[in-house]
Amino acid sequence: MARVAVLGGSFNPIHYGHLLLADDVLERLGLDRVLFVPAGAPPHKPAAQLAPAADRLQMVRLAIAGHPRFAVSDLELRRAGLSYTVDTLQALATAGDSLFLVIGSETFLDLLAWREPRRVASLARLVVIPRAGSAFDPESAAAQKVLRAIGVEGGFVHADEGQEVPPRGVIVVHGASLPLSASELRRRVREGRSLAFRMPPAVIEYVRTHGLYRTEPA
Question: Is the pTM of this model over 0.70?
């Protein structure tokens, strides 16, 4: 049974922040693989802001090429309708792997608005990544409310350097981060500014060659 991190997102576009986070989680938790899952039609994001699914998938493929433990799935792009995480995890669970769902701390606090949050937490162990500079407090009333509602035993546990992670609980990883955002990168493209050292060169070339993000979304 492989231990697999599931890292979903629009990847619009993928950048070094995503890749650094994935590599850090892989190492911290001693996982076998990180599976990038580009969203087809995210429920909480306007479709007009997204580059075509085929382009986002190809950019992820280019970005992770050469990393022996990174992989990408087009599962959500092949499925019709909105992309719900519970459906994705249910499909991935059929392989028998042990799944770890990587989400940001803001997303965790909004988890009860998701479809079947308790089912999500039963299909994959949650890995919460506090945003750099955020005030995420696992002991806060908001965080504890989500924890109780999803029925996870063991509370919050921390993946500290050199420490073995307890077998139960929501994992908090204060991982490496870069001050990058996809929206800022899209803005840089529109303004004709440099993308160097922000995305892999192959992704930068793909964005330019295919004319992505040159205009404001409708």
Answer: yes
